[in-house]
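Its record is retained below.
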Amino acid sequence: MSGEAIKVMLVDDHTLFRKGLAELLDGRETIRVVAATGQPAEAARLLDETQPDVLVLDLNMPPHGGLALLRELQAQGWSKPTLILTVSDAEDDLANAMRAGARGYLLKDMEPDDVVDAIQRAMRGETVVAPTMTLKLVNLLQGGGSKNAARENLLAQLTAREREILDHLAQGQSNKAIARALDISHDTVKLHVRHILSKLNLTSRVEAAVFAVEQKMAPRQK
């Protein structure tokens, strides 16, 4: 990624996790942690002082929770990407976060590289979720009737390998997991994903997963 590092602010009341994440992110050339706090009451002041590009916010924090804080910050003018980072994999929590205006929903057991990737993708305007939450987001986004003819025409443009990778995206797998499953390189998977998004006129892997499910490319049972 070129250009200036992405400025990130962390709000999490678990001190060890917050400090560990700050150290991990600050070790990347593409990211700079400009503020980190465990006190929601300090969040507005720190946002104003440090002007971050992305807010990474814990879901369950006293006194009222991360989503209440997000709504409060938005009422005060915050409009840049917010990523929820939590231990909760409940679909209701995911739905509430998206309704509150979060750009993404990440889990605290994710690989560090995937958290970094999610921050970068959020800056590009994508909606990002933990790989294991993709199908839950698909369930939330599905709205019924399909545009079968147009969609099948788009699908016909994909190669056999691209269809295979699209199927794995619908299962909520990360690029690394797809690379392992198909015995190809991580960079090759990234290239295929870019081609898939371009051919299907989509902007994110979440949209690709929704597309796959709606086209009856449901996850394979194992």
Summary: The domain at 6-130 is CATH 3.40.50.2300 (Rossmann fold). The longest strand covers residues 31-37. Strands lie at 6-11, 31-37, 54-58, 82-86, 104-107, 128-129. The chain has two domains: 6-130, 142-214.
